[in-house]
Specification:
There is one protein chain. The protein is α/β, with parallel strands linked by helices. The protein has 11 helices and 11 strands. Strands 1, 2, 3, 4, 5, 6, 7, 8 and 11 form a 9-stranded mixed sheet that branches. It has a two-stranded antiparallel ribbon with strand order 9-10. A hairpin with a 2-residue loop joins strand 9 and strand 10. The model has no long low-confidence stretch (mean pLDDT 97). It binds adenosine monophosphate, fe (iii) ion (2 copies) and zinc ion (ZN). The site of adenosine monophosphate has 11 residues, from helix 5 and helix 6.
C-alpha cells in the first residue's frame, strides 16, 4: 500500500523544518507522496519538489490560504498549484504584507503590556515572508519573556487575549477562485477544528473540490462525519498531519497516512479540469 501526507509546513511559514528536512522525514515514514501547504505562500515548493525528485517521491505543490466566510476563519488548501501563476503570487504577496504589519501590531501590544519584545527579534527568528503568531510565541520564549509556547498563546496571543490582533483575510470564495485560476484544486482544511459545518454548503456552491477528512487533530468519529459530508456533497477526500516540525519530541509527519487512491482521484479531477479548459 502507498500512502500520502497532504498537509505539511516548513520554515517558509510557521513550520521549523527546511523543505529538505521535511522530505527526509517523509522518506523515513515511507510516504509515496507529499504536498507542501505553507500558510499563504508557495515559496518552499521549488526546494521541496527538488528534494522529492532526488528520492523519487511524488510532490504536490500547494498552499494553505487563510480565508473567511460569514466571519469565521477558514483555511483553504490549494493543491497542484502553478507556483509561477502571476495572479496567485500577487494576491498572496498582499496577504504576506498583512501578516508582516500584524507582527508589528502584536509586538506593539506586547510592549504596551510591559513585555519588552523587539520586533526585530521576531523577524530575525521568522526569516520568512509569511510570519505569524507562532513566530511571536517562539521569540517570546527565546528572549525568556515567557516559559513556553502554550503559555505565550494562553496569556497573550490566543483570540481575545491582549496581544491578539485579527488578520485581514480574503473571502473563502475568493480563495477558491484564486486556486482554480492557478490550475489547482480547493480543499477545506481541518473542518473538525472549525466546528462550523454550516459554511460547507456555501463553499460547495463556490466550487470547493474536496474536504480534509483525515487530520492529526480529528478523532475517528470526526473523520467519519466528514467522510459522510464528502459523500453527500460529492467532495474529494484528503488528509494530512499538519506537521509544523517537532511536536512533543517527534514530528507529526506520517501520523496521518492517506491511502494513495485519494491522490489518484485528485489527479483525475485536475486532468478533467485541464481537458475542459482546453476544449
Ligand atoms: P496566525 O496564522 O498567525 O494567526 O497563526 C496561526 C497558527 O498558530 C496556526 O497555524 C498554528 O500553527 C498556531 N497556533 C494557533 N493556536 C495555537 C496554540 N494555542 N498553541 C500553539 N500554536 C497555535
Ligand atoms: Fe500553522
Ligand atoms: Fe490550518
Ligand atoms: Zn496547516
Amino acid at each position: 500500500m502507498r500512502f500520502a501526507d497532504l498537509h505539511l509546513h516548513t520554515f517558509f511559514s510557521d513550520g521549523t523544518f527546511t523543505p529538505e528536512e521535511l522530505v527526509l522525514y517523509a522518506q523515513k515514514n515511507s510516504l509515496a507522496c507529499i504536498a507542501l501547504t505553507d500558510h499563504d505562500t508557495v515559496e518552499g515548493c521549488e526546494r521541496a519538489a527538488k528534494a522529492c525528485a532526488a528520492v523519487k517521491m511524488e510532490f504536490i505543490p500547494g498552499a494553505e490560504l487563510t480565508a473567511e466566510m460569514d466571519d469565521t476563519e477558514v483555511h483553504i488548501l490549494g493543491y497542484f498549484l502553478d507556483t509561477q501563476n502571476a495572479v496567485l503570487l500577487e494576491k498572496i504577496a498582499k496577504f504576506q504584507a498583512v501578516r508582516q504589519s500584524r507582527i508589528h501590531e502584536m509586538v506593539a501590544a506586547l510592549n504596551r503590556l510591559g513585555v519588552p519584545l523587539k520586533v526585530e527579534a521576531v523577524f530575525a527568528l521568522a526569516n520568512c515572508k509569511s510570519p505569524g503568531r507562532p513566530h511571536v510565541a517562539r521569540a517570546l520564549v527565546k528572549e525568556r519573556l515567557i516559559g513556553n509556547l502554550d503559555e505565550a498563546f494562553e496569556k497573550y496571543l490566543k483570540r481575545g487575549r491582549p496581544a491578539w490582533v485579527p488578520k485581514a483575510k480574503m473571502s473563502a470564495l475568493e480563495s477558491v477562485e484564486l486556486i482554480h485560476q492557478a490550475g489547482g484544486l480547493a480543499v477545506m482544511a481541518h473542518p473538525g477544528l472549525n466546528r462550523s459545518d454550516e459554511i460547507i454548503p456555501g463553499l460547495v456552491d463556490a466550487g470547493l473540490d474536496g474536504i480534509e477528512c483525515f487530520h492529526s487533530k480529528h478523532s475517528t468519529s470526526t473523520s467519519e462525519r466528514y467522510l459522510e459530508i464528502a459523500d453527500k456533497y460529492r467532495l474529494l477526500v484528503t488528509g494530512g498531519s499538519d506537521c509544523h516540525g517537532f511536536s512533543k519530541n517527534k514530528p507529526l509527519i506520517g501520523s496521518v497516512r492517506l491511502p494513495y487512491e485519494h491522490v489518484q482521484e485528485l489527479q483525475a479531477k485536475v486532468a478533467e479540469r485541464k481537458a475542459a479548459a482546453g476544449r
